[in-house]
Amino acid sequence: MKALAPHDPYQALRYRDFRLLLTGSWIASLGGQMLTLAIGWELYERTNSALALGIVGLVQVLPVLLLSLVTGHVADRYDRKTVVVLSQLVLVATAFGLAALAAWQGSLVAIYGCLLFRGIGSAFNGPAANALPAEVVPDHAFENSASWRSSFGQLAAVVGPAVGGLLIAAWNGTAFVYVLTALSGLTFVVLLLFVQTGQVAGRASRERKEQTTLHSLGEGIGFLRRTPVILGAITLDLFAVLFGGATTLLPIFAKDILQVGPSGLGWLQAASSIGAVCVALYLAHRPPLQRGGPAFLLAVAGFGLATIFFGFSRSFWLSMAMLFVLGGLDCVSMVIRDTLMLTRIPDEMRGRVAAIEGVFVSSSNQLGGFESGLTAQLVGPVLSVVGGGVGTIVVVLVIAATWPELRRLRTLRASTT
């Protein structure tokens, strides 16, 4: 019997272009996390309204919903690196706009307008950026690359809110945070210029089909209908995040319930990502998962349970602990989903399927924020969070019964299930 090759936890990091891509996306994510915290704090300070926080998600999700098929087609037809660069420049422009509005106390309508354009940039950025790692690492390193991307993304979500909260407290405002966000996006653009895509040994750069018909745009939907494991995974993520949107209400918990101010808000927002970083590093250093489906379902159910405990908590440290657990379990589901997206989808379809995933995942994040803000306005933040956690657990049970292929999933590679 042929001996198995030892597991290499740094497999994906041995590729120069992946390191550049990872570093740049981490810096941009760092700025994005600071901006998310700053927007939440500024709007709640100015309005004292949970609904105002929820509208942030609604404004940013509209472009994702309306443009999803177009953005996926763009990611598959045009050079993905170019699409990401242009999208990042849009995000940079909106961050500078928010800085100006914060400095001169611009209207709420103008702030939401900037967020709308930010949603447009994100809608085009998402499918191309999610498919780009497949052009800089070989197939056998996909799962390892997903773990490292999750690790660095969650590290940004740890550092970003903590630093953002401290900067808001130190500068007594959010304008400086928005400027740093813009500069982080520009840094990502510069690093992207040095990334060479389609150069991995053994994989020729493929010429993508130049179709403009509705048939081409609908191919991603057809692929998902024929692949129940992926469809079940992203459907579960959609409803889990839709019901488990506790992070949207963190400014309310920080200011009114736990009474810890903007610096405490920064640590609360970072806590889930600290948990995610720990789990992502663990996953990167262990062999590939052999029971991916059950692990995915249990992780999402645990996410809902941690959300319930967070909603009832009146202790800052207990709240931090629950967010830590919540983030770690969310990381497990994210790594499994991202690995499935890379290993089970043909390269020429990745942009379109990633766009549809963006509708499921990104829209669920933003719509979940709107749902949380609306229900918090009606029944209070505690009932909103606790009810969302209960809903998440119910969804896990429904998805497990509806898609038995997901429940029986073992290895994440396409050869066997």
Q: What would the keywords be for this entry?
A:
mainly alpha, 15 helices
Write the layout of secondary structure elements.
Elements: H1 16-47, H2 50-77, H3 80-103, H4 108-131, H5 142-171, H6 175-192, H7 214-225, H8 228-243, H9 250-257, H10 261-284, H11 292-312, H12 316-343, H13 350-379, H14 381-402, H15 404-407
Report what the structure shows.
With 417 residues, the protein is mostly helical. It has one domain (12-201, 212-407): Growth Hormone, Chain: A, CATH 1.20.1250.20. It contains 15 helices and no strands. Helix 1 (16-47) packs parallel to helix 5 (142-171) and helix 1 (16-47) packs antiparallel against helix 6. The longest helix is centred in the N-terminal third of the chain and has 32 residues, at 16-47. The model is unreliable at 199-213 (pLDDT under 50).
CATH class: Mainly Alpha
Order of helices and strands: HHHHHHHHHHHHHHH
Which word captures the global form? globular
**Poorly predicted sequence stretches spanning 5 or more consecutive residues:** 199-213
Distance between the termini: 23 Å
Mean pLDDT: 80
What is the name of the CATH superfamily?
A: MFS general substrate transporter like domains
Question: What can be said about this structure in brief?
Answer:
With 417 residues, the protein is mainly alpha-helical. It has helices at residues 16-47, 50-77, 80-103, 108-131, 142-171, 175-192, 214-225, 228-243, 250-257, 261-284, 292-312, 316-343, 350-379, 381-402, 404-407.
